[in-house]
Amino acid sequence: MRALELLSPAKNLECGIAAIDHGADAVYIGAERFGARAAVGNSLEDIGALCDYAHRFRARVYVTVNTILYDDELDDTERLIERLQDVGVDAILVQDMGILQMRREWLKAGRTFPEIHASTQTDNRTAEKVRWLHGEGFSRVVLARELSLGEIGEIHAAVPDVELEAFVHGALCVSYSGVCYASQHCFGRSANRGECAQFCRMKFDLLDTEGRELVHQRHLLSLRDMCRITDVEALADAGVTSFKIEGRLKDVTYVKNVVAAYSRELDELVRRCPEKYCRASLGTARHHFTPQLNKSFNRGFTDYFLHGRTSGIASFDTPKSIGEPVGKVKEIRRNAFTVAGTAVFNNGDGLCFFDASHELTGVRINRVENNCLFPQRMPIGLRVGMPLYRNSDADFERRLSQQSAVRKMSVSMRWALSADGYVLTVSLEEADVSASASLIYAHQEAEKPQGENVRRQLSRLGDTAFECVRVELEEGTETRFVPSSMLADVRRKAVARLEEAIQAMRSASPEGKQAARVDGGGSVPRLPLYASHPYMYNVSNRYARAFYAERGVGDVSPAFEQDAHTPSRLLMQCRHCLKYELGMCPKSVEKSSGNRLPGFLRLADGRRFRLEFDCKHCQMNVYAEE
Asked: Rounded to whole angstroms, how far apart are CA atoms 296 and 294?
């Protein structure tokens, strides 16, 4: 039986607790520094509080330390990791191989080091890479988003002992993660340092190989958002252990809605296949609403390349949230418009539409009268027949702003006699864990049966993480009198001990998950991907240089961020292909000698980027024009 984990993002402590309450088995969060979302950091105190809350349900907390590091940051990174270990984090996500060198020194000195997961920033697209990472000490590898079910299955078959984590929902980067340098090249903001300026969400002209314009000012690199909620079982069968939701910049209502939706899918899978799968944490989340993914931020949805290459993965018209389709404009009046469709609208809803120039225009609704909507101001460009989308549902957001879920672990209780009093045993229903507490109190015959009062007092679990499903009374206890205050006291002691027992059964300690290699040695597989561009190893500090040198890799260049004169500046490697998306792929259409093939992207300020189509590997490369 394999434990499946739903992994949620957490912008802050509030989001992390909401994720656990709504069904997440684990949460990933950024610390104050060195996370791939530099704008989102959290204090050690908040991370510790999240660990305390998550561990009540045997849920886990992972912290992102997944940027490349500079020499003057290594000491601070080491102190951070030490403090993260002290507050109880379960693992750290890592990009920089310098941290493995750091880990090696800790282990040689007899110190424990947190469990390490290979971030998707380490560019994990082959079984060869995953095998190598596992050999270097990573217990889990976060796969590239671009992989298909077949490719994931092949990796699992080749390296079955590695935990595989795959993204299932949220925003998509157009480049393979960890090998995108466009933001650094154009704006001096490194994606590998958590400062991505979202180059891929900008407008471009598409030019042919002769420099003539094919497409004018569209969001040619902007992708729709990933949604794989109908593929949860297929991903599990392919070998995925952890189902990752993207969104460490998203607010708490996004987390609640998306986590609830995927948690329900995982629960249903476990219900159908109890002999194959179980949930990785304890407890059941009860939602006070029906999750609806299209009501949270989205640019339209795609399963990306999960079932092979398909068209429609891009969002050329806008990088902004579109939301859910709600109908078409039926009639336009002086200060209102009516909508043809079945959607129910609310005061305060946010709607949007694409005008004749493909520009997304938003409109806020002040007042609703059936299907007649009165906006704050009538939008320019609205026409009869235009499709409308709702990207902010006021009623749905209002419900999610309140308590929208509760998570409890079911327990049973047994109340029994002992030689000098009584014993209460509390047992988890979903795991083999129990705890007992004794009450020393002389046996006294009661004037009337006590069974109802004993059951009522013992099952009052209030705001604990537990709910009682039954209380078994040993024969003879119903006729004995015990004050209610003593029943409450022994219940509190037993529950506290049960919480301690759950903490003790947390998944394997960091030492238990360390891979065999401690002292290095051997050589790193020479990945063809980096043969022509050795800066793509992202080596930016002395620890990382030593790490690769000890493994026989002598030609690693400085990281892109540290070498302004890097020749042949490859900025992106993408599985997204503009030739395919625009119907020009020679594998799918008849090639005509008159075709004008794309050759360059051009920003509005005139900067150009050369396109290279590697049809052998079905890949599009983006270069800085010299």
From this structure: 5
